[in-house]
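Example record

Each entry pairs one chain with its bound ligand, 26V.
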Amino acid sequence: MATEHAASHTRLPRHDAPDDLLPQYGCGPIKFDGGSNALFERHLLFDNVLAPSEIGNRERYEAIARSVRDILSQRWQQTEETYNRENPKRIYYLSMEFLIGRSLRNNVLNLGLDPLARRFFNETQLDELAILAEEPDAGLGNGGLGRLAACFLDSMATMQLPAMGYGLRYEYGIFKQTIVDGWQREQPDNWLRRPDPWEVARPHLAVAVELGCSFEVRGGNLKAIVGVPSTLLGIPYDRPVVGYGGKTINTLRLWASATPDSFDFQEFSAGEFVGALAERLAADTVTRVLYPDDSTSMGQGLRFVQEYFLVASSLADLVRRFRANNSDWNDLPDKVAIQLNDTHPSLAVAELMRILLDKGNLAWEESWEITRRTLAYTNHTLLPEALEKWPLRWFELLLPRHLEIILEIDRRLREELLARWPDDNDRAERASIVERGGARLVRMAHLAIAGSHSVNGVAEIHSRLLRDVTVRDLAELYPDRFNNKTNGVTPRRWLLLSNPDLAGCINEAIGDRWVTDMERLETLRPLAEDGGFVSSVRQAKRAAKLRFADWLKSQAGISVDPDTIFDSQVKRIHEYKRQLLNGLRIVALYRRLRENPHLDIEPRTFFFAGKAAPAYHVAKVIIKFLNNLGDTINGDPATRDRLRLVFLPDYCVSVAERLIPASDVSNQISTAGYEASGTSNMKFMMNGALTIGTRDGATIEMAAAAGEENFFLFGLTAEQVATSRGWYSPWWHYENEPETRAVLDLIMSGHFCRHEPMIGETLRNILLAGGDPYMHLADLASYMEADMRLQSLYSEPDAWTRRAILNIAGSGKFSSDRTIAEYASDIWNLEPCLVR
Ligand code: 26V
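C-alpha cells for the complex follow.
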C-alpha cells in the first residue's frame, strides 16, 4: 500500500573508480599507451573489414563504443547472475518511451573511465567532438515522459536496485525537425541505419504474442482480418544501463516485432508466396515507428497493437523469469513490482489477470489480489484529450479474452461503487471502466487505477488535482492508493556530464559526493556570500555560454553574443505550455525599444526549441510565428543589437545538454494547473539558471526549495484559473491594458508576417476570438512585471549569481535519486541488491 511518508533514502554508493572492473575484462587491464589501444585497434580494423584509408569517424565511434561495451560486458552479465542467484524482489519499469539520447560519454563517465578516455584522445589526437557526434541521439520518446524513464533507469542502476526497463525498439524514433521558411518539416529518424554498438539481440529469448485477428498493411495503415488469429514474435534487444560507479549494470530490454518462421512455411507450401511476405510486413510494422503525437489519443489501431505487444512480451518474459526461481504464484507481489509509465502499458492489468487465471489456474479473487499488489500506475497528464480510451470493438477483434476479463473487472467495480453509494448511478457511470453511450470505450486510466495498489502523480499540485478533480470518484473509493512522487532528473547526465565547468567549481568547493547525494548541494548556501565562489560560478556560466556559442556557430552558422542574457524556453510546442505568451513578451519588449531607442534594457538572446506533433496545426503556426518574429527583430536595426531570437531546430537530448548549462533564464510559463510536473525546469535550476514562471507543476516545489524570493513567479494560480474560467474574457485585457492591445494590434497588423495574413488570423483566433482558453492575456501584464524584476537583478552581476547559487543549493530535491528512493520505499518495497 502506498503511503505519503518521506522515503528513508536508499544509501547511494560513493563513486570509486571501478578498480575491480578492468581486471575482470578477459584481456587484463586495458592499455591506452602510445595511442594504440589493442581493443580499439582490433575493433577498428576487424569489425567493418575496412582498409585503414577507408576508416572515418563513424567507424572510430563504433570501435570506441564496442571497446567500452567489451569492458562493461562481464559486469553486466554478473549483475544478472547476482539477481538470479539472490532472487531479490525486482522492479520492472514498463514504458512506451525511453528518450535515451547518446550513450558513449555517459557510459564512459559512469564507468569511471573518464581519465582513460581523456588520455586516449590526447594521445591519438583524434577529433573527440566529431567522433562523439557520430552517435545518433536515441530518440525513442516524445518529451518529458520518455526522458523521465531514462533518468529513472540511471538512478535505479546507480542505487544498485534490481531493475529492468521494458520498451519498444522503434526503427524510427521521434522525427527530425527542420525549419523551412519558418515552418516545421518532419524527416524520418532512421537511427538504426548503421548497426548500434550498444544493443545485444537475444533471439533465443523471443516470446510469442497471440492476437485474435490477422493484419495486412493497406495505405500505411494496419487493417484487421477478422476471425483469423495470428501470432507475433517479440525479439528482445538489450541495452546496458550503467550505474554511476560501474557497480551495477542493469538492462533496458526493447522488443522488436517479427513473424514466426512457421508461418512462412505453411503459406509457401500453399503457394501463398506474396501473402506470406505481406504477413511478415505487417508483423514488422508493429515496432516500425514511435507515435509522435503526445497530446491526442487519436484512436490509431497500430498504437493499440504496439501497446499490447509491449505488455504481452514484457509480462511473458518476466513471468518466465519469476517461474524459473519461484514455485508459488502467490509470491509474485513479493518478487515483482511493475510500474506502469502512464496508461500506455495499462493492458498489463488484463494481461496479468489472463496469465493468472488461464495459465496459473487461479481463482478470480486470488488473481485479482496478486495483480493489484504487483502493479502500480503513474499518471503524467490531466489533459482530457491525452487520456487514453480505446474502442471496445478493438478488444473484440484483437483481444477477446482480455475483453471478457475487463468486462468482469468493470462489473465488479460498478457493484462496489453502488454498494458504497447506493442509487448513485451517475457516479458509477462516471467512475466505471467501460464508457457507455454511443460506441463503447474502455477508459484506460480507470482500468489502471482499479488494477493497481498505487496511483501517483508527478508533482504535489498534479497529484492533488488528479485526486480531487480528474478521477475524484475513484479516489474517494480508493483513497489509500493515491500518492505523490515529485519527478527528478539525473545529476550525472544533467550536471556532471553536460556542465563540466560548473561541476568542477562545485567539486572544488564541497567535494564530489553530491553526484550521488544531491542534498549535499545545500552546503553551497553559505557560499552565496563568498566572493571567490560567486566569481567562479559566474565564470563557469560564462564558459558554458562560450562553449554553446561556438557550437551554434559551427553547427548552424548562427552567431550569438555571450554577453547577452540567454533566456530559454525549450519543450514540446503545446498551447498550454504557452510559447505564445513568451512571444507576446518579446513583442512587447520590441515595441518598447522601438518607441524609445534609448530605453535601458539588458541585451538579450531568446532561445526557443521544440517539436510540434505533425498533425497539431496550431502548434505549427506557433513555430512559424516565432520564426517570423525572429526574422523581424533580428533584422530591425532599431533592436537587433539588443534583442535576438533564435529558434533551434530539432530539439533533442543532445541539444538540451548544450543549451541548458548555457542559459541564464528558464521560462516555465504554462497555464497554472496544466503542466503535470515539468523536468527541464529542474535541469535549468541545477545548472544555475533563474526561473521566470507560473505556480505550476514542480516549479512550485522548486521555488519553495530555493526560497520564493529567488524565483520570478507571476500569474494566476491554478485555483484562480479554475474559478475565473467561467467569466474570463481576453477582450477585457485587450480593451483595458494599453500594452496588451498594442502588442496584439502590432501582430495582427501583419508586421511580423507581411505576406502571410493567415498567421495573424490564427493568432487572433487563439488569443481573442476563440476565447483564449489558456488565458495568455490574463498573465501577460504580470509576466512583463516579473521580467522587469529579472532585468534589474541581472544588471547587478553579483546579486544575480548569488541567487543562482541559492537555486543550485536548493536543487538537490530534484535529483531522480530522491524520486526513485521514494518509489522504492513507498510503492515497490524494494531493497538494493549488491552485485557479487
Ligand atoms: C500521450 C500520448 C497519447 C496518445 C498517443 C501517444 C502519446 C504519447 C505520450 C503521451 C503522454 C503525454 C503525457 C506526458 O508526456 N506528460 C509529461 O510527463 C512529464 C514527466 O512526468 C511531466 O514532467 C510533464 O509535465 C508532462 O506533460
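Confidence is low (pLDDT under 50) at residues 1-36.
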